[in-house]
Design the sequence.
């Protein structure tokens, strides 16, 4: 079983499922495509779970479950898959969220421009391609998946979203394409540089890590990758597409977009920016940290000022992605572990928040906070879940995001007290925007418009339950994820410090003065 | 004085001879076969001719062992007039394949209700009684098939030409039939005739530049032969002014043919006015032939003066991409949009052309510029051909509807056609997993390897701009509601459908598994000198 192509199966199964769903004849019962989609995603999750159990956190090699074959020899491109701790957690996040989203979006595809079966086919295709992004260990393959994920998202937003869906879809696509094309220059640059080496052109991450790019070239290539990932993540000042997109997309699409696809940005920063260009990453750190802190504070303030619920959640994500990027670029073990863990936890908490507010919005038909009031009296289960999801988003101790946010801030303190001080305000502001939102929608006198609101039904609760369960479990016991992530963190740190040991001295000196 | 007969390697040049021979036969058919049977005879003759030439081209290609690790460099034949090496032979195969697809579009009769897309009687003035009678009688010009073959014959010679005179003759042989074909549209004949005249005038003008360039280069090198010119440049004798002027003039002639800015002004008008099958064929095959010729002329003959011509081509490549992409943004006609997109693609191809490096600088296994350009032109040609085939089937009562507003909601009317067109547009935009992406990657990579970073950065920016207008069209087809009756898709015969099918399939395959073709090209993409 060691040679079993785990990752290829996880990648192809949803895509095959998507083709099957799309190919179902129109006359079958409308529920069948949904069942096939849910079944496919559950089977994929089961296989993924087996793979995760077989993952050996203590293994010495960087990647596990590796597969490698030449793809385009002239380009040095390979079909190469493999996961380290970070990749594994994100693949698992994708696999967990896919069935959740499909179950939660059961009826969201009905009112779209096209048939619901196309909706579920695109969802499954997106799942498969996302697995490909996180599992690719070849830069070219990564780039192909990176761009390919845009197409399903584009159609999911443009076909099934709200009033401004076409506009939002185009804005999303153009931002992402622009980022992708900037990255393309760097991807080509990698080819040019690696072609100059002994072994000839290659795109394998493991081989590229051996190439010394030199200071100038390395910095330029780093910039190309970083800008693309910053757009994807999204970071201030290139975040503007996200609120518009989530305001128009269905909740399920938003979950896949924010919880899974945006992680490509931060994942890419670790995998490509830090590991391939350690010198350039250290060179860029001060600027990136400042931008990350601005993202944290700015996102939080924008969230406080939003009256539109999906936009508000989008801004909270800008703030949270600021934390993740901060954790990555402070380049110490607490920060990086925190960031890696945060990627997983943020995925869960944002998914819960998007889905539960999606249920709320679909009941009232309005996304504006001011249209609600006193919902907790008519729909207590909904209100309760909303509260838990919100509390996890503001990092209440005992819920999983707390652990990761705490680690990031510890790491930030070790790097710079000023940066950490600003970052901490993000926590306070998070309490404001979440609790205000809860207060204005759920508490107070029940407004007439929501008086007849039904509480969550079994399907909706069933879709949210696994996510909430994980949030609570990992809040008390984050060790399983941390154990998987930590070797990857050590590897990244060893890459970053390889050529220059100076940065790691700085924090310890500061510590000595105290 | 003793006359020695020139030695011609008939077996090696057989593809050209077959094509031209069939063209001449086609003229005889026009003179002898009754009108009712001409269509069938011409289509069969042309089809068989192209296929026979294709087989012959493959046989010649086989003689340089393209599958071995060290293929033969090729043959110089016909007293040094033609060079049959890897790039030439590959261009031949590609041109013949495109010609066959072109023939399928030319022969399509179902779209116009039983007649071809060409004028019933070209000499009848538009709007006159004669024209009405011609169309009432169901006349059609079957001369288009021999004309196609003459153009193909010129296209085969163009990339093979190994001296300036042959190059010029080939240029004219390929151009003249195309001028004529452009004016033969059955519908919107004034537009079509205007296009033909414009194309002819500007083409003649650029030929003038070309001939003058030949004269100057001859003055510099004392020979028309590419190898002698290269030798003269290497030895550095002669006046630089003659060489620089000559190179610039020759470049004007060739850049006109590929539709590069600032010599692109004819492209939108001609692409719009010409009958769509001609536009598709011309857009695809002319680019192949012209880039083959451009590469050979500037790499083989002027390779030694690379530092002199490269800056000029940097500027032209950048200008071409910017003009093509930016002007395409404001187009409201799908054929004009595709025309500007083809200008932009000419710019991307020129980016690959700028990947010229000394042979010693290219490591074995690296991608080389000839390989990249030939690959790109393959992907572009097949995608474009299929795109124009789709343009020809979206129609209403008055013929093709090319105004963009009429394409709104096509996705609802005919998801398959709109989906195919969207996929082809994504291919042109260079989205991964389509051939456009691998092609773009190849040309950008060779250009960056040669240090043309600024051009590549502009190319990437312009790809983003180009993506915008392709996607706008996709949005229009899928997300907009149809205006009025909306567009209808006329079901074409198997011929047009198979062109679309081949184009879509090639766009997918060359995007997912470009390896085999790229590797083959990598082995054979060496000019014989």
Sequence:
């Amino acid at each position: 079983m060691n040679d079993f192509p785990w990752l290829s199966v996880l990648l192809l199964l949803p895509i095959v499922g998507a083709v099957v769903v799309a190919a179902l004849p129109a006359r079958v019962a409308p529920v069948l495509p949904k069942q096939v989609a849910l079944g496919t995603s559950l089977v994929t999750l089961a296989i993924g779970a087996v793979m995760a159990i077989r993952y050996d956190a203590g293994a010495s090699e960087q990647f596990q479950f590796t597969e490698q074959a030449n793809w385009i020899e002239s380009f040095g491109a390979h079909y190469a898959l493999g996961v380290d701790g970070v990749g594994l957690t994100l693949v698992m996040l994708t696999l967990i969220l896919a069935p959740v989203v499909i179950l939660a979006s059961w009826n969201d595809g009905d009112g779209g421009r096209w048939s619901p079966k196309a909706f579920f086919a695109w969802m499954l295709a997106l799942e498969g391609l996302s697995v490909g992004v996180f599992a690719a260990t070849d830069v070219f393959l990564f780039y192909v998946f990176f761009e390919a994920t845009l197409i399903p998202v584009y159609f999911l937003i443009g076909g099934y979203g709200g009033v401004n869906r076409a506009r939002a879809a185009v804005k999303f696509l153009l931002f992402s394409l622009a980022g992708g094309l900037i990255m393309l220059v760097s991807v080509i640059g990698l080819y040019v540089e690696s072609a100059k080496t002994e072994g000839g052109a290659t795109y394998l991450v493991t081989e590229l890590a051996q190439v010394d790019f030199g200071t100038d070239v390395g910095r330029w290539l780093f910039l190309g990758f970083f800008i693309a990932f910053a757009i994807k993540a999204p970071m201030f000042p290139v975040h503007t597409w996200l609120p518009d997109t989530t305001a128009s997309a269905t909740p399920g699409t938003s979950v896949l977009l924010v919880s899974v696809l945006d992680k490509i940005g931060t994942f890419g920063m670790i995998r490509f920016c830090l590991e391939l260009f350690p010198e350039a990453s250290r060179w860029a750190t001060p600027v990136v940290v400042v931008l990350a802190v601005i993202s944290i504070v700015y996102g939080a303030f924008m969230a406080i000022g939003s009256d539109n619920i999906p936009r508000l959640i989008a801004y909270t994500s800008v703030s949270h992605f600021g934390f993740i990027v901060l954790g990555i670029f402070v380049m110490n073990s607490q920060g990086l572990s925190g960031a890696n863990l945060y990627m997983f936890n943020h995925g869960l908490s944002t998914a819960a928040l998007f889905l539960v507010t999606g249920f709320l919005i679909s009941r009232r038909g309005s996304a504006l906070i001011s249209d609600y009031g006193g919902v907790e009296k008519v729909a207590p289960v909904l209100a309760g879940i909303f509260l838990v999801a919100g509390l996890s988003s503001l990092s209440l101790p005992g819920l999983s995001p707390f652990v990761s946010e705490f680690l990031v801030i510890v790491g930030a303190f070790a790097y710079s007290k000023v940066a950490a001080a600003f970052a901490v305000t993000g926590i306070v502001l998070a309490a404001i925007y979440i609790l205000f939102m809860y207060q204005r929608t759920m508490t107070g006198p029940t407004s007439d418009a929501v008086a007849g609101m039904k509480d969550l039904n079994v399907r909706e609760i069933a879709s949210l339950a696994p996510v909430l369960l994980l949030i609570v479990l990992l809040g008390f016991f984050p060790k399983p994820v941390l154990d998987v992530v930590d070797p990857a963190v050590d590897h990244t740190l060893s890459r970053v410090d390889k050529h220059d040991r100076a940065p790691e001295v700085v924090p310890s000196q500061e510590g000595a003065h105290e | 004085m003793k006359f020695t007969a020139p030695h011609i390697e008939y077996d090696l040049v057989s593809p050209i001879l077959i094509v031209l021979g069939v063209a001449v036969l086609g003229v005889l058919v026009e003179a002898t076969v009754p009108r009712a049977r001409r269509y069938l005879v011409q289509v069969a003759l042309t089809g068989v001719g192209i296929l026979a030439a294709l087989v012959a081209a493959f046989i010649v290609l086989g003689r340089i062992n393209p599958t071995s690790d060290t293929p033969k460099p090729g043959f110089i034949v016909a007293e040094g007039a033609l060079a049959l090496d890897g790039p030439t032979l590959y261009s031949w195969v590609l041109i013949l394949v495109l010609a066959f697809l072109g023939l399928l579009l030319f022969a399509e009769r179902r779209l116009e209700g039983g007649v071809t897309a060409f004028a019933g009687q070209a000499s009848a003035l538009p709007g006159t009684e004669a024209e009405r009678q011609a169309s009432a009688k169901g006349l059609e010009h079957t001369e288009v098939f021999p004309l196609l073959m003459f153009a193909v014959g010129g296209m085969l010679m163009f990339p093979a030409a190994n001296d300036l005179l042959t190059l010029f003759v080939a240029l004219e042989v390929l151009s003249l039939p195309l001028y004529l074909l452009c004016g033969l549209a059955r519908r919107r004949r004034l537009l079509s005739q205007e296009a033909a005249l414009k194309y002819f005038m500007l083409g003649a003008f650029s030929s003038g530049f070309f001939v003058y360039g030949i004269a100057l280069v001859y003055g510099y090198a004392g020979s028309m032969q590419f190898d002698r010119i290269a030798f003269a440049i290497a030895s550095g004798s002669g006046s630089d002014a003659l060489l620089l002027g000559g190179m610039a003039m020759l470049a004007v002639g060739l850049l006109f043919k590929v539709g590069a800015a600032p010599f692109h002004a004819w492209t939108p008008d001609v692409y719009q006015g010409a009958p769509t099958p001609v536009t598709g064929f011309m857009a695809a095959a002319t680019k192949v032939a012209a880039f083959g010729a451009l590469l050979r002329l500037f790499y083989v003959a002027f390779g030694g003066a690379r530092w002199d011509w490269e800056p000029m081509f940097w500027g032209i490549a950048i200008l071409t991409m910017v003009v093509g992409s930016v002007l395409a943004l404001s187009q409201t006609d799908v054929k004009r949009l595709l025309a500007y997109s083809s200008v932009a693609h000419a710019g991307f191809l020129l980016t690959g052309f700028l990947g010229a490096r000394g042979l010693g600088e290219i490591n074995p296994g690296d991608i080389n510029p000839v390989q990249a350009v030939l690959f790109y032109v393959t992907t572009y040609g097949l995608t474009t051909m299929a795109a124009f085939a789709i343009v020809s089937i979206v129609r209403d009562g008055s013929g093709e509807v090319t105004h963009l507003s009429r394409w709104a909601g096509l996705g609802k009317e005919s998801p398959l056609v709109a989906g195919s067109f969207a996929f082809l547009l994504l291919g042109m935009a260079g989205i991964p997993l389509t051939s456009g992406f691998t092609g773009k990657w190849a040309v950008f990579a060779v250009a960056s390897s040669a240090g043309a970073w600024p051009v590549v950065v502009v190319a990437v920016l312009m790809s983003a701009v180009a993506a915008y207008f392709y996607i706008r069209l996709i949005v229009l087809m899928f997300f907009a509601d149809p205006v009025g009756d909306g567009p209808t898709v006329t079901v074409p015969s198997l011929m047009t459908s198979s062109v679309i099918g081949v184009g879509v399939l090639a766009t997918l395959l060359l995007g997912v598994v470009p390896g085999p073709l790229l590797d083959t090209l990598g082995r054979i993409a060496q000019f014989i000198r």
Strands of chain B lie at 74-77, 82-85, 394-396, 399-400, 488-489.
